[in-house]
Amino acid sequence: MLHVDNDERFLQLSRTTLEAEDGIGEVVSVTNNAEATEYLFDRDIDIDCVVSDYELEDGSGLKLLEQVRDRCPYIPFLMFTGTGSEDVASGAISAGATNYLQKGTSGARFVTLASQIQQAVSHRYVEKQVHRGFRAIDTTSEGIALLTNDFRFNYVNEAYADLFGYDSSTLIGGEWKETLTDEADDRLQSEIISEVDSAGEWNGDITGERHDGSTLTLTLTVSVVAEDEYVCAVRDVTERKERERALVRENERLDEFASQVSHDLRGPLSIIYGYLNLARKTGEEEHFDEVETAADRIEAIISDLLEIAREGQKTLKLEEVELVEFAIDVWNGVESESATLDVESTNGRILADRDRLTELFANLFRNAIEHGGDDVTISLGRTPDGFYVADDGPGIPEEQRERVLESGYSTEQSGTGLGLSIVQQIADSHGWTIAIGDSTGGGARFAFSDVEYPGIQ
Length: 457
Hints:
The chain has 457 residues and is an alpha/beta fold. It has helices spanning 8-19, 33-42, 61-71, 86-94, 108-139, 158-164, 168-171, 182-199, 238-282, 287-311, 323-332, 354-372, 419-430, and strands at residues 2-4, 28-30, 50-52, 55-56, 59-60, 77-81, 99-102, 143-148, 153-156, 201-209, 215-226, 229-236, 318-322, 340-342, 349-353, 377-383, 386-391, 433-438, 444-449. Helices cover 47% and strands 22% of the residues.
């Protein structure tokens, strides 16, 4: 503690008395402003509290107070003077004094002073801890907010404000529900508040809403910190949740894949074993023709299943694709017999992954030939928001249109039932929607919408 007073004998008495009190520690005594500012600002000494008389050798205690407040705004400063008046007291408090005390003459004056020093230093320590805590909160990457008992913002750190696209000052005084979706706010009212009030804390996932209306998944903790205040901590887990959902989808896809492999290979393998046994018993070579047919079917199934497996692992590489040229190139690689492809009425470009679009067209072309016959005519055309592939074959009955895109579904005994499932996966990966209908020639029509066009050529 630093004590500043003109009277050296009074300083000596003060120092002896105060150092005998618990919690005061060392008392440094000086008689003027110059010495006081030297101890405060130039020497490597921690001063926890300043006690000063009003009248000093080289100026007033108010002048020293102004210097202290300018350089050390939070240090406790007690005006302890024999010059007593309301004006002096008012001036000291207005200038930022922690308290104003008159010296008096009784022995209790130092007891009172010691008590005031201890209170002021203790209060300052608490303030420093609070400020340190708020500085830590302000710099943390986790969003922190203090809420009133009617769930309005009393304080938010920068991380919280940035998370929702606001300035922190904009949120202060506003309702908490401004950063929540309507569904989350309903949950707040019906579930979260009551649990916080009864258990003292609630923790879980909830959906937040940014200033621009977009949403994010949050891990939220709400705790009671006082009778009329709550603390809320949030962390954006949107990406983590999406990775978890993607992992679940991938596991489901792998389960479906394993099931499909087991199911689709069991049939032709049974045929192979059956005809091999017949060949052994009868020695007739024609049974090997059936074995070869079943083996070809296994090869086709494996090829399609491998394509499905690869489809889930590919990353889109979008490029501009000219539909006419691209469709002709794919068509030339398909065993089409006497089937024809009509692209005369089609022109323009789309954005697509070339490898995946190749698989999509190839599967659609093969499907049309398989069901429409060797002389089927396939057409490719533009729509306002995409394109279509149609044929003049027998078409697809309306009651079967939802199922034909399912993995393993086929109306042909020789089909793998996987080709149109691959088409569905490729469309999904591009964000396209498939609609199955009737073509003008009475066959099937697969229309792809939500396709992105870089420009009409």
